[in-house]
Design brief:
- This protein is α/β, with parallel strands linked by helices and 331 residues long.
- It folds into three domains: 5-137, Rossmann fold (3-Layer(aba) Sandwich), CATH 3.40.50; 142-203, Helicase, Ruva Protein, domain 3 (Orthogonal Bundle); 214-328, Up-down Bundle (Zinc Finger, Delta Prime, domain 3), CATH 1.20.272.10.
- The protein has helices at 8-14, 27-43, 60-69, 88-100, 117-120, 123-131, 145-155, 162-172, 176-189, 197-203, 214-221, 224-236, 241-263, 268-274, 279-291, 294-311, 319-328; strands at residues 19-24, 47-52, 76-81, 106-112, 133-137, 158-160, 193-195.
- The chain has a five-stranded parallel β-sheet, with helices on both faces. Strands 6-7 form a two-stranded parallel sheet.
- Helix 3 (60-69) links the parallel strand 2 (47-52) and strand 3.
- The radius of gyration is 24 Å and the shape is globular.
Length: 331
C-alpha cells in the first residue's frame, strides 16, 4: 500500500499497520514519518528495539529477538535501519523471510535511503512492499518550495504573502530540514496571521547549504543563478577547486559520452541505462543534451582543462571566475 507522507496522520488515526517501509532521498520526510509511527506505537504500549544494519550484520538476531521478546512483552516496535540500502545476500533472504512471516503483536519499520530503480525491483524490496505501508520520501522541487512552505506555515496558523514565500524558498534552496527550523522560528517570533516580506526578512537567517555535487544538477538545468550561488557559497566555505572541478568535468564528460552514443545510433534510453542515469535525473540530462551544442560542449571541456592548469599554478587567472563563466556558457 502506497502512503503519501501527508496522509500518514489520517492513516495512524485509523490504526497501525504491522509493517512500514520508509525510503527515499529526503531526510525530513523520513524523520517525520518515523517519528509519527513511533509515537503512535509507543502510545499504544509497544516496546521499542532498534537494529542498524552495518558491516557483517547478524540477521539472525532480529528473528531471535522477535521469538524471545514475545515471551516477555505483548506488543513490540522493531525498527530496522539499513543506511547503505544494500542488505547483501543474507540480508535479502532475511528481509524476504521477515516480510513473509511478520511477528505477532509487532509493528516493524524498515528504513532505507534513496534507491536506484533496479534495487526497487529486487525480490527483498518487492516482498517488503507487498506487505507494508510504503512511504517514499521525495525531494521537493525548487519550484514547489513556496507552496510547501505555505502549507507548513498554515499548520501554525500563519499565512505568508507570495513575495515572502518566494523569498524563503530562494534562501532555503530545497533544504527541508532548514526550512522546518525557519518555519518553527517564525511561529515563535511572529504572531498568527498574515506575514509580510519585511516581517519574514527580519526573522530569518541565511541557512542555504550546498554540497559539491549540487553543481552538477544546476549545470544540467542551465540555472545560472543557482550555479553562481553554489560557487559563491563553496568558495566562502573554503572548498578546494580540484574537488569541485571534478564534478564539473564529470558532467561535461557525461554529456559528451551521451552525444557520441546517440551519433552512433544508440537510443537515448539505452545510453541512459548504460551510464546508470535513472529516472530522477533523466529529464535534467535530456534538457542539457538539447540545449548544449557540440561546439559549446567542446569549448567547455577545453575551459575545464585550462581551469585545471590554473588550480595547479601552471596558468594564470582565477579558477573560480572561470568556473562560473563555464557554467554560464552552458545556459
Amino acid at each position: 500500500m502506497e502512503l503519501r507522507p501527508e496522509d500518514l496522520g489520517a492513516h495512524l488515526a485509523r490504526g497501525l499497520s504491522p509493517l512500514y517501509l520508509i525510503w527515499g532521498e529526503e531526510p525530513l520526510a523520513m524523520l517525520e514519518a518515523e517519528d509519527a509511527i513511533r509515537a503512535a506505537a509507543l502510545k499504544a504500549g509497544h516496546e521499542r528495539t532498534v537494529f542498524t544494519v552495518q558491516g557483517k550484520f547478524d540477521w539472525s538476531v532480529i528473528f531471535g529477538h522477535a521469538d524471545n521478546f514475545s515471551l516477555f512483552a505483548q506488543k513490540k516496535l522493531v525498527e530496522i535501519r539499513i543506511p547503505s540500502g544494500k542488505p547483501g545476500i543474507d540480508g535479502s533472504a532475511a528481509l524476504s523471510r521477515y516480510a513473509g512471516s511478520l511477528p505477532a503483536d509487532t509493528v516493524s519499520i524498515v528504513s532505507l535511503p534513496g534507491l536506484e530503480w533496479k534495487q526497487t525491483k529486487s525480490k527483498w524490496f518487492e516482498a517488503l512492499s507487498a506487505k507494508a505501508a510504503v512511504i517514499q520520501s521525495r525531494e521537493v522541487p525548487l519550484e514547489q518550495m513556496p507552496a510547501w512552505i505555505g502549507r507548513r506555515l498554515a499548520a501554525n496558523n500563519q499565512q505568508a504573502s507570495r513575495e515572502a514565500l518566494d523569498f524563503l524558498a530562494s534562501r532555503l534552496e530545497g533544504n527541508l530540514l532548514a526550512a522546518r527550523q525557519e518555519i518553527d522560528k517564525l511561529s515563535l517570533l511572529l504572531p498568527p496571521g498574515k506575514l509580510g516580506l519585511d516581517d519574514v526578512q527580519q526573522a530569518v537567517t541565511d541557512v542555504s547549504r550546498f554540497e559539491v555535487a549540487d553543481i552538477q544538477d544546476a549545470m544540467l538545468a542551465g540555472d545560472a543563478g543557482r550555479c553562481a550561488r553554489i560557487l559563491h557559497s563553496l568558495r566562502q566555505e573554503g572548498e578546494a577547486v580540484p574537488r569541485l572541478l571534478w564534478q564539473i568535468g564529470a558532467t561535461l564528460r557525461l554529456l559528451h559520452k551521451l552525444k557520441s552514443a546517440m551519433k552512433q545510433g544508440q537510443p537515448l534510453a539505452a545510453a541512459f541505462k548504460a551510464n546508470r542515469i535513472w529516472d530522477k535525473r533523466q529529464s535534467l540530462v535530456q534538457s542539457a543534451l538539447k540545449r548544449v551544442s557540440d561546439a559549446r560542449l567542446a569549448d567547455a571541456l577545453s575551459d575545464a582543462a585550462r581551469i585545471d592548469r590554473q588550480a595547479k599554478g601552471l596558468e594564470g587567472g582565477d579558477p573560480w571566475d572561470d568556473m562560473l563563466r563555464l557554467c554560464l556558457n552552458l545556459r
